[in-house]
Amino acid sequence: xxxxxxxxxxxxxxxxxxxxxxxxxxxxxxxxxxxxxxxxxxxxxxxxxxxxxxxxxxxxxxxxxxxxxxxxxxxxxxxxxxxxxxxxxxxxxxxxxxxxxxxxxxxxxxxxxxxxxxxxxxxxxxxxxxxxxxxxxxxxxxxxxxxxxxxxxxxxxxxxxxxxxxxxxxxxxxxxxxxxxxxxxxxxxxxxxxxxxxxxxxxxxxxxxxxxxxxxxxxxxxxxxxxxxxxxxxxxxxxxxxxxxxxxxxxxxxxxxxxxxxxxxxxxxxxxxxxxxxxxxxxxxxxxxxxxxxxxxxxxxxxxxxxxxxxxxxxxxxxxxxxxxxxxxxxxxxxxxxxxxxxxxxxxxxxxxxxxxxxxxxxxxxxxxxxxxxxxxxxxxxxxxxxxxxxxxxxxxxxxxxxxxxxxxxxxxxxxxxxxxxxxxxxxxxxxxxxxxxxxxxxxxxxxxxxxxxxxxxxxxxxxxxxxxxxxxxxxxxxxxxxxxxxxxxxxxxxxxxxxxxxxxxxxxxxxxxxxxxxxxxxxxxxxxxxxxxxxxxxxxxxxxxxxxxxxxxxxxxxxxxxxxxxxxxxxxxxxxxxxxxxxxxxxxxxxxxxxxxxxxxxxxxxxx
Length: 609
Description:
5 domains; 21% strand; rod-shaped
């Protein structure tokens, strides 16, 4: 772990405080020691001056005593200081350092004047006699109320200063040692205080990097221990909340990913914050590349931008529909709603996009179906009505003409009956796409039976009908009647649209878990632009020709729904003037024994035309 900056900041403040305190204490202690020592030395000099006064009293009383110089010198040597005896008029009669005869009058010395006035005098000054700074203490000598003179004790200031320097050094060393101990204790204390904070910092950084299980040790019950406990509690709550947020986010993303509706969420600055795959597919965008970008740079669909602007401006829901021409006719329905924050303020908007292309297509199909049914029903009904009214109104109509009219009425009624039957069959297939009765059917038998029923029509047009059927059964799940109807419709169309002398081939084979029926003809063929729609109800490539041949326009639609109901499909390959191949594929039965005894059609191929 790196050294804590906070430790050094705290320790630096502590160092400054300790050094400042030590300096102040050392200075005050040094000053106090200096004052105390000076006072002590001054008091000592006073006592020694008092001894000198006793020694020199008789000499001062006599006015002059040759022996006083010797006694003063001896006492000074004993005490280790300078001693001076001065007469009342200031004349020096004895001095331990100099010859009294060579010394100046001392009556004006500051310490002598103070002693004369106050009975005690002291002074610090430079001595010209010994050429050094001295501390002087003077006392008066009296007898019977008469002033005999003065005695003075002195000490060089260098001695005091040397001693003071030693004492100050001792004080400084003591202060330094105390400061060093205090700094060491302060460092240990600062580290003790900051170490839990450092651990909490490392743990917080680890949590910020995703290690949500990181905790700190609680080693005490003081404020630091309480802080560690609060940190661990906060980390646990944060981990739980993040787990909940991640869970909710994953659930939300799963919901958005699974939605068929497109969802785009933007913030108040119109930046994309979320887009699901459905929205990307509808608008041909990459959701991951759109996140964080302005919606105006993401899509150029004007209706979406306008509805978004309206919602962000007014805070109200907006609806609209978009028609896109992106290679296919696509219709999108949009609903834009405001997003509010916890305080109810507008924080963005969400756009929900529904792909209603199939719905619009079905609406068109429904309208076309209603129009086509109405038209197809109206044609035979109008013809029947007109023929009947003619017969009724012309009572003198010849029998031969009346019979001709009745035959036309019968033809139109058959056409009407076939149309209604096909509509009912188609309705049944659409409403029960998974409800057809399913038995095991040999596809060869259904093909042979359908071919036998239409063989006469093929002979009338001199068509060659060939079959390529396998020798082994190819069993599929199917309803016999519905399956035969689908095959019949395909074969009937091949016969109708193949010119006289043409050829039709029926093939049955299996592979890839599907049984396949192919009906190939050499007819007029179908243009590619019609091939995708020929299985729609009432869709006709050539309407006039289809009605002339008596078709209802529902045959291929029935084929399509029969195949879908049985889990298969139907397709076409065709070229104009070269013929067509209609292909039905149905799932094969993996266990043909399961349906033994259920197929009753005779296996007899039709005669070739």
